[in-house]
Amino acid sequence: MKTKAGLFLCLSFAVFFLVCCSQPKSRLPKHQQTSTGKKNKIPVQNAKLIYKEKKKRKLQPSIIKPKILSRQEWKAKQPVGKMKKHKPKYITIHHTASLRKKSISLGKKMQSLQNFSQRKAYLSNGHLKPAWADVPYHFYIDVNGKIAEGRDLKFAGDTNTNYDPSGHISIVLEGNFEVEKPLQGQLKSLRSLLAWLMVSYKIPSSKIKGHSDYASTACPGKNLRMELNMLCNQLEKKVK
Length: 240
Ligand SMILES: [Zn+2]
What we know:
The protein contains 5 helices and 8 strands; from the N terminus they run H-H-E-E-H-E-E-E-E-E-H-E-H. Helix 4 (184-201) crosses helix 5. It has one domain (68-238): Lysozyme-like (3-Layer(aba) Sandwich), CATH 3.40.80. It is globular and about 75 Å long. Helix content is 35%, strand content 11%. Strand 5 (139-141) and strand 6 form a beta hairpin. The chain has a 6-stranded mixed β-sheet with strand order 1-6-5-7-2-8, with helices on both faces. It has a two-stranded antiparallel ribbon with strand order 3-4. It is an alpha/beta fold. Bound molecules: zinc ion (ZN). Zinc ion (ZN) binds next to loops.
């Protein structure tokens, strides 16, 4: 009897040992294993990091570079002469001061502007404009809201008025906004271009102004100025 009882005990122990010790071990590394053994649970430390990352992403506005017709695409000529290097700190808005022309492509307009810019020319007020190295503006927004790249952003623009354009990113919109109203497509492109530039160069909305804030001129025209004030208020909330 004693032998049978001993044999029974031995067998029971062997079964217990097999059941308890043959459970498959988790393949997750130790730091990812949880006390319950469930694989899907994220450790507290990692969960905190993921939460922080998600929160950070949510705070950053989804600002992307708008589509811009490059100098290469509009077949720009090389600048002539030296240009002044600068660090963009302000954004200044202009109008072309001539009525919109729908029939001419943006590329052709940029080529004409560059030809005019790179030679001496008499202005409508009778003043003689010197030959500039390149187009005076960094961006041009046409009647259809298409954006073109003007002067390289590394260099200050040029002006016929009495202010130093160093540190200014100059954006010109096609039209005479003393008499015309800026079109929705133009304003939409201006908004996305401004948002992108503000984030890229860390420029607050308080540094976005019109040409007439710096010099005696009607530029960018009363109708665009009104829109610009509203746009800056919107951007102040959107881009932090
Ligand atoms: Zn201007």
